[in-house]
């Protein structure tokens, strides 16, 4: 469990409470972890607010379900997934689900082909502007 804690804390740059299970049961940290591994894999995360510091069970369950859906997208095998009930009831074991998720590496922010494609689009736009300007000067 300490290795799991260290992995989550280092990835998310947070300090988790002593009781790891209770800090994961509302699904907030888990959803942030999934988004760290694959950005936007969890589109909506219910978080506590100062006005309502504790999430309802329905919102906790929705967060946990969103996390499990993100795990599927990331490529965690279905056999490694647990039920939302196990997470909400703090019966989450560090293996194999969270170990699978925490060992995934986040994709690089920019792929080289993204950069090349973006550059080509900008160059094409500049060429088209030059041609349009040159054509208007001739007429």
Automatic annotation (TrEMBL):
Xref: PROSITE patterns: CH
Domain (Calponin-homology (CH)): residue spans on this chain: 1-107
Lineage: Eukaryota, Metazoa, Chordata, Craniata, Vertebrata
Pfam family, one: CH
Name of the molecule in the record: Calponin-homology (CH) domain-containing protein
Organism: Haplochromis burtoni (Burton's mouthbrooder)
């Amino acid at each position: 469990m300490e290795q799991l804690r260290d992995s989550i804390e280092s990835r998310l740059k947070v300090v988790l409470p002593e009781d790891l299970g209770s800090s994961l049961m509302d699904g907030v940290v888990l959803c942030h972890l999934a988004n760290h591994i694959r950005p936007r894999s969890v589109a909506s995360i219910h978080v506590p607010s100062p006005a309502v510091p504790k999430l309802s069970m329905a919102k906790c369950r929705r967060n946990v379900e969103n996390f499990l859906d993100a795990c599927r997208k990331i490529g965690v095998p279905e056999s490694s997934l647990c039920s939302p009930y196990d997470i909400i009831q703090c019966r989450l074991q560090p293996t194999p689900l969270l170990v699978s998720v925490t060992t995934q590496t986040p994709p690089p922010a920019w792929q080289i082909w993204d950069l090349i494609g973006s550059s080509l689009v900008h160059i094409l736009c500049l060429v088209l502007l030059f041609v349009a300007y040159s054509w208007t000067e001739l007429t």
